[in-house]
Design a protein that fits this description.
The chain is mainly alpha-helical and about 150 residues long. It is built from 5 helices and 2 strands; from the N terminus they run H-H-H-E-E-H-H.
Length: about 150
């Protein structure tokens, strides 16, 4: 399970890095793209924080400058690899409070999968938004990554 998640988070890292590089090279990135990518970074950070039992530093929809994306992205990746390297039981239950104060519980593997799936979902929205703003998005399909 560790190897599987590490491979998927490598792919996630690659995709996010490509978006960061593309946006850093553009002079006019839409507010919607900035909002969505900041949200990807925030959610990843928040879920990592829940797994390790610490208070998150970011709010769900907190906006970050494009110049800060790299650092947050690297911290998220490092934290996730610490989680996947040190977890003894991927079925371990994590109790947490959501952003609205409601209590929930999920296991580690479901949370890790959610981070990946959530990021993919919003990267699709970002690709659509880039194209709508005359910026050609890069192909981020898993098969292209694996080639």
């Amino acid at each position: 399970m560790k190897v599987f998640f590490n491979q998927l988070f490598d792919y996630n890292f690659y995709c996010n890095k490509k978006i960061i590089e593309l946006c850093a090279g553009e002079s006019d990135v839409s507010e919607k793209t900035i909002e969505l990518f900041s949200h990807i970074l925030n959610a990843h950070h928040i879920w990592n924080s829940r797994i390790i039992g610490k208070q998150p530093e970011f709010d769900v929809w907190q906006i970050h400058t494009i110049t800060s994306w790299n650092d947050i992205h690297y911290d998220n990746q490092r934290s996730t690899f610490e989680i996947t390297s040190n977890v003894d039981d991927f079925d371990k239950r994590i109790d947490y409070e959501n952003s609205k104060g409601r209590l929930f519980a999920n296991n580690v593997k479901d949370i890790l999968f959610h981070i990946l799936n959530h990021s993919t979902h919003h990267r699709g929205q970002i690709s659509m938004n880039l194209r709508a703003n005359n910026i050609e998005p890069m192909p981020l399909d898993y098969v292209f990554y694996k080639r």
